[in-house]
Amino acid sequence: MSWNHWVLGNEASLRLGAFVAVLVLMAVWERLSPRRAWTVSRRLRWASNLGLVVLNSLALRLLFPVASVGIASWAQQRDWGLFHLRPLPPGVMLVLSVIALDFVIWLQHVMFHAIPALWRLHRVHHADLDYDVTTGIRFHPFEIILSQLVKWAAIALLGPPLVAVVLFEVLLNASAMFNHGNVGLPAGLDRVLRWLLVTPDMHRVHHSVEEDEANSNFGFSLSWWDRLFGTYREQPRAGHRGMTIGICGYRNPKRVARLPGMLALPFAGPVRGYAINHRQRRCPDED
Prior knowledge:
The protein is mainly α. About 55% of the residues lie in helices and about 0% in strands. The protein has 13 helices and no strands. It has helices spanning about 5-30, 40-65, 70-75, 90-115, 115-125, 140-160, 160-180, 185-195, 200-205, 210-215, 225-230, 255, 260-265. It is globular, with a radius of gyration of 19 Å.
């Protein structure tokens, strides 16, 4: 059996195994050494956030019978994509593919903040009143569907090897749960690590209720893009224990911590002029 066939046959098991392992590891770490005190019942939030994961998985299975690795296989069989224009060593192609796909996700994330219609979907992720491992997998089904289409388009354009696509999917899910963890690294380790990877303290700034802080640190895996494009912010003004997590005007747990309210959130109320160049620093009075 070829390597590509093995990857195709085991892709779902690899992704599920990594997902469960990182989820359990981060949950134990948060329980033993939480960075912040929780403000909402963990049982309520976890039931709702994991409920979204189940809905998203069902939606993807129904709408997209072929996973991202299947699109990569289709492109590879037809020699589609930029990586087929000039042969590269397998290791180089693997690394470049992961980096390129990570940049696509970073840019997609920026667009979900910059475009009001997309922000309506993405604010489900930001409306979480606490910040822990399940925040990293809390996304509205419509956002997950759009994200899948973006990944398919990027894979078709680039033509990455199958193993790179699987590795990227595993790293994306694992890093999202890691950097949304309610944990903290030693200051020295965090300072060094965030030159390459997004750490929990780095990404937590992005979930601040203050809009200029929320419009920073968009990275999920690699931290380079925020430094390169000027969206990097080192720390929140109020500190990690003093900062407020969430979105102005959406502070009612019945609305943002229960599954029906989360599903309805994109269609509720106005979008508050939320764009990348918005310069308001302080949260206005809540609705």
